[in-house]
Amino acid sequence: MFKRILSVILSVLLITTLFASCGKKEEQKRILKVAALSSGYEETKPGMWKEICDAFTRKTGIETQLTLEKNLEDVIGSSMQGGDYPDVVLLATGREAGLTEQFIQDKNLVELTDVLNMQIPGEDVKVSEKLAGGFTESVATNPYGDGKTYLMPMFYSPCGLFYNQGLFKQKGWEVPKTWDQMWELGEKAKKEGIALFTYPTTGYFDSFCFALMYAVGGPEFFDKATNYEQGVWETNDGKTFIDIMAKLASYTNKKTPSQANDQDFSKNQLMVMQNEALFMPNGTWVVGEMADAVAAEGFEWGMTALPAVKEGGDAYSYTWMEQIWIPKGAKNAADAKTFISYMYSDEAAKIFAERNAVQPIKDISKILSEDNKLFYSIYDGGAKAAIGNFAAYKATAGLGTPADYFFAPINSLVSGNITKEQYVKDIITATDKMRENLIKK
After folding, report:
1. Is the CB of residue 111 less than 8 Å from the CB of residue 150?
2. Whole-angstrom distance, CA of residue 10 vs CA of residue 137
3. Which helix (H) or strand (E) segment is 181 a member of?
4. 80 close to 91: Cβ distance less than 8 angstroms
5. Beta partners for 280?
6. How far is CA 306 from the centre of its chain?
7. Which helix (H) or strand (E) holds 157?
8. What domains appear along the chain, each with residue ranges and CATH number?
9. Lower CB density within 10 Å: C or N end of the chain?
10. Entry pTM
């Protein structure tokens, strides 16, 4: 009888141990749900996100379940309505479906400020130490203006001032680091029959004006200006911004306004290539766009950030940027944060760069193709990233877009059809109405 009882006890213990062991193994298995937009980067060289997820698993032991779709909003939107949330989402603002904006407006994002202090898996460095300057200092990552980060920066494309490096070498000129140096160079160029500035169309002033707002007064002035704060254009920063815009108009090639349209804009871009103007605002696409144009002898593309307002101040380059975030409904937010921190590792950056998807980390230009090194090294020399846009407001009769008041009148400033005083007066009148009709976050 004793042996039978002992046998039963041992069998029960064995079964209990087996169940406990199975349960323990199940608990140890960690699966992270990753949802990413299948964009042009995947078409360049398919398999980017699978390669990233596999590398992350090897590095951390955390398995991933990848959802990769061109219509990502439709795919994850319906499942989230049923309570099934991804743990981490790569989906930028500015898309037609507006899913990311909806999560921002509903305050359904996990705060990611602590990710900045996390150590990158496989590296002895924190995320904040790896990121290039300025990428987590705007409404694009800190949407509520409270200094807290809810979306982390991902792939980016810089804009800046393009110029002919060959001409600068020939003349022995240095690229200006401040606006005072810019005006001095303008006088030198004028004696050579060269204008300081041109622009393809006034629409190209979006990236220029945003970068200038940052250079003038940092993220604080940018947020005030783009949210139409009352009295902002009467402040010292506001006056400095208007003064630079008006003075630059006086140094702009006088042929520019008549060609600043969708048919003739390339003629203005050609001014830089043929030494009729020194600088123009543009993006990295201009190189391919003008590949067949006839340039001056010795022409060589150059790109720089907007100068600082004063000696020792910050220079800024506007950048288009994507974002990665965690929905509040995520079940594995801690592992999702680890995944996000891995996005800034050298290993991940190299995988991305093979598809021309460039991460906002320091010295990224070292692993890029020769064509991209020129453009993406713009932040390696200390320039900061300007990110963001004008705040949205309700459509109102008689009220146009911000571009109608900030950018479009520049043609008239250059031609002398309006004064600096009229320019700022029209901006104040329009932004007062924009502020009254702001769409609240």
Report:
1. yes
2. 63
3. helix 179-191
4. no
5. 162
6. 16
7. strand 152-164
8. 32-157+319-386 (3.40.190.10), 160-318+393-436 (3.40.190.10)
9. N
10. 0.76
Residue with tokens 């020399």: 381
CB atoms within 10 A of CB 119: 13
139-189 pLDDT per residue, tens: 889 988 788 999 999 999 899 999 999 999 999 999 999 999 999 999 999
Residue ranges of E strands in 256-395: 277-283, 301-304, 316-325, 384-386
pLDDT tens digits for 116-141? Answer: 999 999 999 999 999 998 899 888 89
Cα gap 420→428, rounded to integer Å: 13
Residue located via tokens 């146009």: 400
CA pair distance 317, 376, nearest whole angstrom: 11
Contact 257, 411 (CB under 8 A): yes
Q: Which two tokens stand for residue 103?
A: 């999560």
CB-count burial class (<10 Å; 0-12, 13-18, 19+) for 295: middle
Reference 55, options 149, 120, 130, 148; nearest CA is 120
Unique residue bearing structure tokens 């007066």: 425
Three-class DSSP category at 379: helix
Amino acid letter, 274: Q
Q: What is the DSSP string of 89-147?
A: EE--TT-TT-HHHHHHHTT-B---GGGGGSBPTTSSSBHHHHBPTTTTSSTTT-TTSSS
Residue 134: which of 384, 305, 389 has the closest Cα?
384
